[in-house]
Amino acid sequence: MKKINPYLIALSILLIAFIIGFFAVNMFMKLVVGHGNEVKVPNIVAMDFEVARKNCKDLKLYVQQSESIHNNDLEKGRIISQEPHHGIMTKKFRTIKVVVSKGPEMVRIPYLDNLGVMEAKMKLENAGLFLGKKIFRYSDYVKKDKVIFSQPMADELIARKSKIDVIISLGKLPEVSPKHDKYKNLLDDAGK
Length: 192
What we know:
Trypsin Inhibitor V, Chain A; 3-stranded mixed beta sheet; 4 helices; rod-shaped
């Protein structure tokens, strides 16, 4: 029989003891230090900032606003995003950084009166708005194919990327129309 080297046996035993000890100490430290010290990060996206702070405080987490930006989908004070993301386990007393909505960015509706449809569309797009419905009406004062007014009215504040409807002139009501008198009376009544 071949004799096994005693140094090799001792080295093998030490190596096995080291590996077992390393994993045992690591598991023991996780149990002692980390036991009950972790919580699951809640989903606070779309939640009001103050409500989110209270909910997280109950879980022993902090909420800090890192940025505030305009958002057309969420009203002012609502959370747009969070870091760390919801669903992961984290240590208690950790801070969740959030981006909070300033609400939609508001722009002033430009004056479109007496403009052609394409001019009105370009003016709206330059203001960050879009052309909505085109509604046609007779007008004694505005030339045919020109904008009479917009809905909502010019100079009002509205959320960027909103649609603005325009009322477009068909020109004067034709005199030969059998309905001329009826529509003429309606136009006169509306002008009072």
